[in-house]
Amino acid sequence: MARDPSREQAAARRAERRDPFADPGYAALKADIVARTGHHYYVDKDGLLFERLCRRFRATGAADATAYRALLGQGQDGAREWAALEAEITIGETFFFRYAEQFDALRDTILPGLVATREPERSLKIWSAGCSTGAEPYSVAILVHEILGEALPDWHVAITGTDISVAALATARAAEYGRWALRTLPAEARNLYFRRTSPEPGTNREGGYALRPEFRRMVRFEQRNLLALLDGTAPAHLAEFDLILCRNVLIYFSAETVAGIVRALGRRLRPGGWLLIGHAEPNPTFADWLTPVSLPGTVAYRRLDEAAPLGGSETPPLAGQAPRAAQAPQVIVTPVPAADERSESSSAPAASSWEPRQIPDVPAEEPRAAGEILPPLTLPGASWAPEVPLPEDATPDDVLAWVRELADSGQTAEAWRGVRAALEAGLRDPRLLYYEGLLGLSLGREAEAERALRGALYLDPGFVMAHYHLGLLLAGLGRARPARRALDNAARLSEALRPDTVLPESDGASAREIAESARLAQGRIGGRA
Q: Order of strands across the sheet with 219-223?
């Protein structure tokens, strides 16, 4: 399970236009849902919950909450619908290597330490709790595979992913994903860890990526509810773990339930084991049962009887706080004429006066195939399509929530149409153009993607991630000179920030990571014309 606060706020605003309690059966249905799932998160978010319920009402033909509650109680049909509802209210955004700081900690500190400690027995046991569609445990499997290398066959590595959603687990077991779930991976990594799949009717009509068997077979999946840790029904094999990841899951539960779950997870760690939770989920009270360990950009936990925190003197972030944001020095950004032909080998001005350079060579619009017609757009929870005006109070955040939800569910083409519809309706926001570019790129519409990324930079010349992805796109098209300029812009803007600054729309990547990636990509371009 995972959640995106901006998306949920937008959904709640839409649902507030309707009063959930105008439906007489809503209160009882909500009580049943909270009792079964433990999702106390929805206790004060009726707008968001009701919107998601309305989707299930439409899907099942239920007239209202009373009829839907009756369906949930109908034997096997009810069990199937409970599974669909649980998927509806728990599946959020999931993608590979989400939250770069935590995967840096896994790669650089946690996993190497565990491998060294477990060398005599050559055994690792890992649990991804609330794994959604599998990106998290598979990302960990990739890291373990890389760290162990040729020694992997001599080790017994057991990685278990659990989730309450049957639908999410089906996707996890299939291990096939759209490009959107791989959007933080460079092309080399996508090719190394995945193989391309052919387009198919439905949500995979643009093709996708199948995880390679050597990583897929390292993970197995089970349907589990974390509340089983509290009522004594958790199976005996969910114990003695070297590493537990329970990220962006605890936010759904009440404080009392969270405390019980964290205590239970701590008891299931082996000596020397580690627990990772979400960025916004640490709480000072956890120190009553676990030892917090400050690592660069994140905090992890060990058993209370383990050694004191390793290195560093940072105080772990409190609940609701991200790792400390950096205060950036001011970077003056003004347009540079397209005719600027400064030598790329010339020395750079100081960071305080440096300005992103304009990227030349905008191509003509990519022609559409003869007779191509974009099908009508349908957005979840929305009532507008490209030819229908947006609601008057729709905001860029609303649109971004819609398109991210579509993209995360594999409907990348629909998400692309959605953001284009919003732009055509007059909403102007650099983030909308940025996502139009990313989505267009994932659909193979390079010219349109380039134009959108350039548009985002026109509105916000300091948009680091737009510079970065424009550079990668141009490099992939063989246009070395403008690619180097765009990547140089991304690197220099990032280098003007504190290294641990999490960049907007970077999926958790820090300024240091983007600067390093941009410089590395520049180096790969070499002397190509």
A: 219-223, 156-163, 123-129, 241-246, 269-277, 298-303, 290-295
d(CA 238, CA 279): 24
Say how far apart CA 282 and CA 316 lie, in whole Å: 8
As a whole number of angstroms, the distance between CA 316 and CA 311 comes to 13
DSSP conformation class of 286? G
What is the DSSP annotation of 224-276? --TTHHHHT-S-TTS--EEEEEE-S-GGGS-HHHHHHHHHHHHHTEEEEEEEE
Cα–Cα separations (whole angstroms), residue 78 to 51, 75, 84, 168, 430: 20, 5, 10, 18, 44
Helix or strand (DSSP H, E) at 210: strand 208-211
State pTM to two decimals: 0.63
Tell me the one-letter amino acid at 466. Answer: A
Say how far apart CA 471 and CA 514 lie, in whole Å: 12
Classify 441 in phi/psi space as left (phi over 0), alpha (psi -120 to 50) or beta.
alpha
**Residue 209 in 3-state DSSP?**
strand
What is the C-alpha separation between 197 and 449, in angstroms, rounded? Answer: 22
> What pLDDT, in 10s, does the model give residues 206-216?
568 899 999 99
Q: Express each pLDDT in 338-369 by its tens digit.
A: 333 333 333 333 333 445 555 544 443 343 34
